[in-house]
Amino acid sequence: MDTYEKLDKIIDARMKLKRRFEEKMAQTPSMADDKPRGSGPLNRHGMPQVPVGQTVTKKWPVLDLGYQPNIPLDKWQLAIDGEVEEPMRLKWVDLMALPQVEDVSDFHCVTTWSRLDVPWGGVRFMDLAALVRPKETATHIMCYGYDGYATNISLEEALKPDVLLVHTADGEPLPREHGGPLRMITPQLYAWKGSKWIKRIEFLAGNQLGFWEERGYSNTAYPWRNDRYS
User: Fold this and answer.
1) What is the pLDDT averaged over residues 9-22?
2) CA-CA distance, 14 to 213, in Å (whole number)?
3) Are 87 and 132 in contact (CB under 8 A)?
4) Are strands 198-204 and 77-82 parallel, antiparallel or unpaired?
5) For residues 196 and 179, is the Cβ–Cβ distance under 8 A?
6) DSSP 3-state assignment of 103?
7) How many CB atoms neighbour CB 97 within 10 A?
């Protein structure tokens, strides 16, 4: 399949996914909550810029499980499998051959700090989903990191256009301590929902709890509802 055929395939599958999940995405709290808790001007999706309980910082604190894996690009791989029609395994060159996007969004950590207007570069999760074609049974994903971490996300959240797998932040390659070479970002959820050092995305036929969710963190993680713990 040449580049143009692959791009056409992604666009067609992307539109089908959008139609399938558009209504659910529009009804999520970070899009439709009529009483969001926060302060400041409205952000890009209509919520107060700073969610309740958050403090804005220009620094980017480092949080991890005590281990920062070092994955050379020639050894890095991303598996995408589970409830999909076409499971696949991408090497770095395959990832970089996909449509690349630049976006600016906010980063809200459950430990009460927020970094605003972060410029990112990477690949939309929706485009990866379009490649593997989720089955009708798929409702959630589980994202796994090279550090042993895992976290769950509903598809109506994961398929939003600002959910990216990023390799660039602030105009530079994503630093290792922040999940480089590749991590997921979830601007409309608390940031623990975006796995660092991501190595596998599993599509699920139902919800399962990830690392922090099993330890008392919220299953849904909506910042504008102070939805930190279960």
Assistant:
1) 88
2) 29
3) yes
4) parallel
5) yes
6) strand
7) 13
Query: Is the CB of residue 105 less than 8 Å from the CB of residue 115?
Result: no
pTM, 2 dp: 0.95
Q: In this structure, what are the phi and psi dihedrals at residue 27, rounded to the nearest 5 degrees? A: -95, 0
Query: How high is the mean pLDDT of the chain?
Result: 95
Note the pLDDT tens digit of each residue in 94-107.
Answer: 999 999 999 999 99
Question: Among candidates 52, 25, 26, which has minimal Cα distance to 38?
Answer: 52
* Percentage above 90 pLDDT, the chain: 92
CB 60 within 8 A of CB 72: no
C-alpha distances (whole Å) from 21 to each of 112, 183, 196, 221 are 30, 23, 25, 19
**End-to-end alpha carbon distance in the chain:** 46
CA dist list (Å): 51 to 30, 35, 71, 184: 10, 12, 34, 20
Tokens of 42: 């409205």
Are 201 and 193 in contact, with CB atoms under 8 Å apart? no
